[in-house]
Amino acid sequence: MSAQPEQAPAPPAPAAAAQLLAQLRADRRAEMWVPAFERDWAKALEDSRHSYSLTPLHDVVRTWQLRVAAAPAVDAYMDSGRDESGFVDLDDVLGARR
Description:
By secondary structure, the protein is mainly α. It has helices spanning about 15-25, 30-50, 55-80, 90-95.
């Protein structure tokens, strides 16, 4: 019997973080994204040192890969005019929070 769940994602490639950072530096959002990635990476590195696990580093790479992959869809949504007139404010539904 395996100690890992069957749906455990495969770890990123060893060079994935470096490739991702190069991709972030080439992006138009580099001014915001590179410092954020470096901050997340530094925290994950410190967590890994304490836990003796690479999981925090893998999680940072996976999260940022998903952000980069979703960026074109977010851009398209923002460029579409974002007509949100059909939505209801959650406070109107639930009432004021205490």
